[in-house]
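Morning run. Coffee first, then this:
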Amino acid sequence: MLEAEGKSIGVPRGVLCLHWYDIYLTGTANQVGPTPMAGRNDTLLAAAEMIQTVNKVAHIKGDMVATVGEIHNHPNSRNIIPDGVHFTVDIRSWEDRHSIEAWEMMEKEFQAIADRHGTPIRMETTWRVKRAPFNEKLVKYVQEAAQALDYPSLSMVSGAGHDCSYINQIAPAAMIFIPSKGGRSHVEVEESSWEDCEKGANVLLQCMLKSANEQ
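And here it is:
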């Protein structure tokens, strides 16, 4: 986002909520050749429709991200109709309520898809973490420091979890973002220019000085 908008400093107001779900489907394994298409209980086919649903709902809600990042197919053989699939759903939004609403939409459609394919479904809520707003005063310091240094900044939220969200539970905390080349973040190829690193460090220094000089 920072690179796309030509901003040097990101000013996150907090970390998104994070909701994880695990989905399990059960079907009927059979050899693909002798088994007609009609009447199959293909769990992978059902899962494929559900994965499309995850993407569709995220676009409908418009203020969140939703991802299927893990999938296990059984027996995972090219000539056997799959009889078991386990996949995950990750939903994130600034509004916890919107994430719950999105899951309820997905859950209802998942059940309808499973019923249509004859693939019994089990859905588990694995993890839910509420959003973590940062200290408003420190967030303001970051914004003011960027302005004072004449660095273009962007108000945003953090889509990834950070230690700062836990530090924020016991002491005032905030974060400073700088651009990653190509928008690649939290991956091995992530890289930022030294110029942007310097700008981020300068903003941090100004925030530290301001906090240290408080009465």
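The mean pLDDT is 94. Good start to the day.
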